[in-house]
Every structure is written in structure tokens, then in C-alpha cells.
Amino acid sequence: MKIDRRSFLSLGMGVAAGTALSPLPWKLIDDISIWTQMWPWTPVPEIGEVNYVNSTCTLCPGGCGITVRKIGDRAVKVEGKEGHPINSGGVCLLGLSGLQNLYGYDRRIKTPLKRIGNRGQGSFQKITWDEAISEVVNKLSEVRSTGQAHAVSCISGSDQGTVAQLLKRFLTAYGSPNFFTMPSMQDSYELALYLTQGIQASVAFDVENSDFVLSFGSGIVEGWGSPVRMFQASSRWREGKGKVVQIEPRLSITAAKSDKWIPIKPGTEAALALGLASVIIKESLYDKEFVENYAFGFENWKDDAGKTQIGFKQFVLEGYGPDKVAKITGIDKSTIISLARSFVRASKPLAIGGRNQGRSTSGRLNEFMAIYALNALVGNINKTGGVWSIPKPGYIKWPKVEMDDVAEKGIKEPRIDAAGSASYPYSQYLLNRVPGILNSGQENPIQVLFVAGANPIYALPNTKAVKEAFDKIPYIVGFSSYLDETAKYADIILPNHVYLERYEDIPTPVGFQKPFIGLAKPVIAPQFETKNLGDTIFLLAKGLGGTIEKAFPWDDYETCLKETLSEKWDSLEENGYWIDSSLKPADWKNAFKTASKKFEFIAAGKAKDIASLFGFSSSTLEGDEASYPLVLIPYDSMRLANGFIGDPPFVMKAVEDTVLKGKDVLIEINPETAKQLGMSEGGFAKLATPVGTAKVRVHLYDGIMPGIIALPRGLGHTAYDKFLGGKGVNFNELIGSVEDPVSGLDATWGIRAKLTKA
Amino acid sequence: MSKLDDKKTDQKGQEDGVRGFIILFFIIGLFASLIVGWMIFPSLLYSKKKQPIDFNHVLHVEAVDQGCESCHYIREDGSFSGVPKLAQCVDCHEEVQGEDPEEAKFVNEYVAEGKEVPWLVYSRQPDCVFFSHVTHTKMAEMDCATCHGAIGESEHSKIYEQNRISGYSRDIWGKNIAGFKKNTWDRMKMDDCSECHVKNHVRQASVQTKKGGCFVCHK
After folding, report:
1. Yes or no, beta carbons of A27 and B79 under 8 Å apart
2. A648: which of A100, A251, A501, A587 fits an S-S bond (Cβ 3.0–4.6 Å)?
């Protein structure tokens, strides 16, 4: 009797047979396979009753209506609002991913913060709201008591709406004229409207009704204007209701979708517009009724001193004939002539400008003037399918600020940027000039800086210079909801609610034809200890007391908003927007508030001569050709948010691998140019401009003109979260700020560059 | 020779002994694994949880007019409300009404605190399953009990058994470990849904995609 090896083998066989006859293996396999379909770490939507909240998206100036689907207290999806005047049910990728700006906890600021590390390092300690308010109030009182009230300034994302106006009002009551907004093409458009029509208004484009769109580099389907509205207009044109001619040096998505793409030497768009005007005038194709009866300065004219001044007609005929323009722009003479003819022959032609999304820079005034003049020549000012001017909604009617002596004195001090002074009489805000002034001066014109709804350290050109300027400012107060580059630079942060947690009015979406106000509404309760910026302003004012406190007689921001919008509130609360659909643009007899009561090609008394307004000059690019043989231009994409808001993770996922590979950005270069430089697809290269350098990878692209290289905006963040930060290069680190000679606005469109193999 | 014979007999005896052991070991192995597979494994596979409140369906059904739908109703948009939220219960249970310690516990711990009861849902399908109550109970006029059994006649909440691997409730996964079904509600996995759909010649394809099989329930 012995138990041997075979006994154990037999035991094993018994176990195997028994197991096979039991449910164990089969159920295990089944359960494990089910488990793989339901990883416990996969997020699963909440279960519960669905409800919807209508609101307005504020992630870009487009003003789209959104409907947020909620289950219980959790927002689960952002959808476009059906029947909304701006986006009628559509929504863009960024808007759709908006919840990641709400629930993306890594990028949000959760409580008031006070800096403990170096600036930009991002080391903060949590403080309470009481501590934060009293610290800022103490700082403001201290500055005010030393007679430096005007040295408190504010950078805001815009000057529209109650929150921006409350900030401005705060500065006024405090005693500072130094309120700034971030640059955008609207600055130049509004200036062009003022100079030609004598009105302070917003420009609007009746894109839904135009049948020929001549776009000078505007990214129609890449975020220009109000993006979703433009997609929908573009779809209509694609259905045969209109033609699009896209003029830009790069085959963008807009160019690819257009009926005709005309590559142009970048920076010469103004010359082309004038060239087209010269063909239209020479061939006598312009709208005679408009030009002869409602326009001034077309023909030569006599000024008050009796001296003959050159009019627009002689100016373009002499200076911008198609031969000369062909040379400047690199476009065939025949193309220029036929383009001018097609533009005029269309029944509702429309010329638009503002490159890419038109949001990062104001652009050159002469370019906007020349494009605007094309619209005037075909008489589509305030006409169906044309360019309209829309009065700014005047619903903010607060009583005038009662100022104490300090405020009276401070407000009279000249603005830091000299906007509105004799040098720049027509510009309101020239933030682009501020870093240069701060960096060159010995004294410190800014003691305290507020930053609200803006990320200037990331989004202004020449990041290094901007940082240097910020370093000179002793005290920076951030109001951002996100720990972005500028917030990381702040000394103290008083975080605002995210747009889905707060009330806010969003007036006048870019380029929309009717007076319009959108309302952002709290979709869910605030997730963290944040406050609506409006309420924060009230608390600061209360802390300072006196006339400053009196300037804000409201209990809270919500009350202020309701009172301000008064009779419009019901419509806003119910529909999420208010619209004056009855508004028709003023007819030509009443539209122009200039001295001549006409559309002025040359604003009499406002400009030196016609050449100063329209004249093209080629010397607008930073850098010398010998050291920097290439020209670097930026491009914008719907997949890369590039302003105050950074890409949420979902949107980053949509960035093509010809734009971003791993952590490296790809620079677009024509294969011919790449061959000359000995570069091949995917190779690493060193990009140098007079402003900065960067490591990039090369992407050969037939759709870009030889000698031109292009980088996307919206990458190269050093803040936010791991999904966005540390990927690619910030275009603004490579580009400087070039000042427009007339307006003083930022007119940068590119820079000279050198690309060497790395 | 006898020595040799002895040795042979010995060997034979040994051989028989070894064979005996082989068979014995096989049987031990077989039975042990059968016991493990049929008895120990099934009890290990499930975690057993008690509901936070022992709920008496009988008592509640008596007190309402519309049967199950009084509390488990179809919402206006056609979706199913599922297990009642606290707000529904509060209508009657703002204060303790009876003697039952479970009710007192409910009122004190949940109603007073405004906290939702974390009910364990016996019939919760996984997220990948699209199921519409309204099509089954209203359009096909099926009884709740066809799928849920006589839960409305229970005086106590039964133990909630959850599969430790897949996370399924045992009511979905199958009551019987061997997979034998006595009642329609004993199990509600894919095959059980399709069995009924095939038998009744209903919806073999998705409404949206017109595609068959999978897309009826997996959108």
C-alpha cells in the first residue's frame, strides 16, 4: 500500500473532471468577459430625471445659445439651443466640451489664493474670501492714499456687458482711467465705421443673404465672427446660394471649402483691395447712386483752407492699378481684374476682413479701410447681404458715478497707453502699447493690475516682454476661474464662477445683424468657493467705502443685472436671449453722422490725407530678410482655442497629428522650401524669429506658399492641466507687437523667421 | 520459487492497492471540486448586502391606488422613474407615523438629514443596455411581475447579492448557478431578453439603425 505519483495525478484528473462538471469555469469566463465591458473606472452617466437649462455659451465671443442637459444636479451634456437666432441648434466642438471647463477640477481655482512662491511658479496658499477681500481693499486704500489712484488698472476680456462695465465703473469711482481690453478685429472695424460713417457702433455682416463673399483671410469655418452662425452660412453658400473667394497665403479649411482660393503674399491684402477698387472705378462698375449721392471724398475735394485734396478715385487709379498691385501681391493681373468684375456682378457682394478668427490682434487699419471701401463701392452698406452698423445695446443706464476729490484728480490723469490723446485720438484701448511703455520707463505707471476674463500673459504677442512688464507691476489681482498663465502670475486670485455657474449678460455677438443680448444662467450650483465677479467688485467697493461704495447701490450682482436689464429681463429669463428683430439698418439718408452727413472715404478733419488711411506700405514685418529669410504666420483652428479659454481635453483629442505629434508642434512648410533647407517630413527643426526661438517638427504641406511657414495658435500652454499644458509652442512667444501707424492698435500678422535643421 | 511467487503476489497486492488509491484520489478530487464548484464558489461569488432600510412593499401597496405605478411611475418624457427619490417619500414620511423601527430609522437618518437613501437596485441593468419601461409596460402591456417577480408582495427587503466580478445583481445574473430558470424573472441577461423577443416576434431590429440583433438593446 503506497501512495505514489500516480495517485496525485489521479487527484488532479478528478479535480479537473469535477471542475468541468461544475459551473465554476463557465461562470468565471462569463463574469470576466462582462467585467471587461464594464471597467469599474469607466465613467457612467448618472441615472435620474433629465432636465434642461437654457443658457449662453461664453467660451468665445460668438454668443451661441446652449441647452445644458442635466440629470439631477449633474450637468451631463451641452447642446445647441434649437431655434436660437445665432446658432439655431448648432454647437461647436469647444462649446460641446464646455463641461470639462466646469468639472475639469485640475484646471479650476477652487478658493481664493494668495501667492507664496515666485511669480509664474504657481505656488499658492488657500485663503478665505474675507481675508482676500480685506487684503485687496487694504492694498487699494494704500495706493489711493498716496495719490496714485490712476496707477490701478484693469485688463478685461471685453468692455461689453454689465460685468466689464462694473469693472470700468469701479476704476472710475476709484479714480483711474486705465481700463484696457484684449485686442480683436472689432477694434479696427469699429474705428473704420467711426471714420467713414461717424458712428460708434458694432459692425455686422448679413452673411445669410450675401451671394458672393470676398474674404481677405477670414477663417469663415475656422472661428471667425460667431463660429456656428458662420458654419451655417457657409453651408448655405455650399448649397449653391453663394460663392466664396478666399484670399490668403495658406490653404486653410476655409480656403479648401471656398469656390476659389487665391494665394497672396501675406501682408499685401490691403493693396489687393485697393487694386480691386481701382479696376471697379476704372471700368466704372461702382454703385453710382451710392457713390455720387451718399459718399464724400471719392472725387477730389477742397479742404477748409481751399486746398485741393486727393479723393479716393484718383488715389487708387494712380497708385493701385492692377499692374502695380499684381507685383505687390504676387497675384496675376488678369485674376485681379476678373475678381473685381465678379465681385461687382454679384447681386449681393460682401467683402470681409480680419484674418483667421480675428480675435488675437486688431489688424492694420488701412486693410480694414480698403476692404470697407470695396463694400462702399458696390453700395452694400446697410443693405441686404451687406455690411451693417448696429447700435450698441444701450441698456446699461446707471447713474453717473459720484466722484470724490481723489477720483476727480485720478480720472483726469492721461491714460498709460495714450489712447484718446492727440497721438491716438480715435482708439479707446491700446493694451498692445502697455508692455513696451512699462519695460522702457523708469517709473512704474501701474501699481495694481486687475485681470478679468483675459489671459494676457498667454494671449498677447511677445510673451517675454509681457512677462517682463508684469514683473514690474507690484500687485496683480486675478479674477480667473482657471489657473491659467496669467492667474499663475497673480499675487492674489479672487476666482470667478465658471460660465455654467453664473449669471452674466453677453451682448452683441461678433458680426450679428440685430441688437442682441444673451444671458448666461447658472446651470448648476457653484462647485467651489468662487464668487461672481460682479459680487466681488461690490465687496471691494464696500470695503473701500465712501463714494466708491455709493457707486454700487445694489445688494448683489443678480439684483444689479435684473434692474439693469429691466423690461428685457423676462424675455432673457424665458428664452435665454433678447433680440430687437424689428431693427432695420438705417437708410443712406440717415445712416451717416459725419460732418458731410455722407459716407466719407476720407474723414475730413480726422485724417491727414487719404494715403494715411488707405496707403499700403510693405514695411510692416519685424526682422530683416537676410537673417530671417522666411515669413512665419499664425493660423487658427476650431480645434485649438487660443484666447482666454484653453482647449479642454476632448478638444485636444481632435487636434490632428499633422498639427501636434506627442508634445511637438508641426510647422507647415512648402515642400519646395523644405527641399532647399534640406528638411523632410517629421524632422526636427529650430525655429528662430527676432523675438524668440522654438523647437518644432516639420510638416510638408503643398497648401502653403513657398517661403511662408505657419504655426497654429492655441498650443504651448504652461498652465492648465496635463491634457493641454506642455504641448507645442505658444505662437505669441515668437511674435512681436507691431503698432498700426494710424490707430496705434496691434497690427501684427506675422514675423520674419529662420528655420534650421535641429 | 515460492519466494518468487510471494514476490509476485506481493506485487499484485501492491498493484491493487495503488489502483485503489488512484480511484480513491480521483473520487476525492472529483467530489471536492464539485463541492467547490457547486456550493462554495456560488456562495463566494456574491457579496451579500442588506438594504439600508428594510422596506415593506405589502404595506405600501395597500396604501396606494395605482399599484406599482404609484411610486415607480413613467415620467412625462417617457423615461422610467425607477426607485423613488426622497422627495416622493417625504409626502407621507415627514414625521414618523408608525411603530416600525425601520421607518423611524428612515425618517431620522434620511428624511431629517435630507439625504437620499442609497437603495440597492436588484434589477439594475448595466449602462450598456438600453431598456425602455414604457414600451414594455404600456405598449406591450406587460405586467411588472413578468420581469420583476412578486416583489410587490414582499414584506421585507431581501438580501442584495452582487456578483463580485461583474458587479451584476444576482436577479440579473441568474438565481440558479446552473442556469436553470423556473420563472421569467429568475434571470435577465441578453439571452433572456432576446428569447422573449423571438418568441413573441417583436422588435428584432433597432428602430434607429434598422440593424438587427445587438442594436435593439445596445445603442
Report:
1. no
2. A100
Tell me the nearest-neighbour CA distance from A651 into chain B, angstroms.
24
pLDDT at position B127 is 85
Per the domain annotation, does A737 fall within a domain? yes
**Same domain flag for A153 and A118:** yes
* Same domain? A341 vs A317: yes
Q: What CA–CA distance (Å, rounded) separates A147 from A26? A: 84
Judge contact between A465 and A481, C-beta under 8 A. no
Cell numbers linked to A140: 487699494
Residues A548, A595, single domain; the answer is: no
ipTM for the complex? 0.85
Tell me, yes or no, whether A567 lies in a domain: no
Cell numbers linked to A582: 424689428
Say if residues A159 and A168 touch (Cβ distance below 8 Å).
yes
Quote the domain boundaries for residue A301. 207-385+585-614
Pairing status of strand A630-635 against strand A708-712: parallel
Q: What is the pLDDT of residue B1?
A: 45
Strands B46-49 and A751-757, by their bridges, are: unpaired
Do A343 and A374 lie in one domain? The reply is yes
Do A369 and A458 lie in one domain? The reply is no
Give the containing element (helix H, strand E) for B16: helix B2-35
Sign of CA dihedral B56, B59, B65, B66: positive
Q: What are phi and psi of A725, to 5 degrees?
A: -65, 150
Flag the least confident range among A154-163, A208-217, A375-384, A567-576. Answer: A567-576
The verdict on A248 and A316 lying in the same domain is yes
pLDDT of residue B181: 87
Pairing of β A448-452 and β A349-352: unpaired
Selecting from B27, B33, B128 the residue whose C-beta is nearest the C-beta of A22 gives B33
Helix, coil or strand: residue B61: helix
The answer to whether position A410 is within a domain reads yes
Asked if residue A126 is part of any domain, the answer here is yes
At A204, is the pLDDT very low, low, confident or very high (cuts 50, 70, 90)? Answer: very high
Question: Do A333 and A417 lie in a common domain?
Answer: no
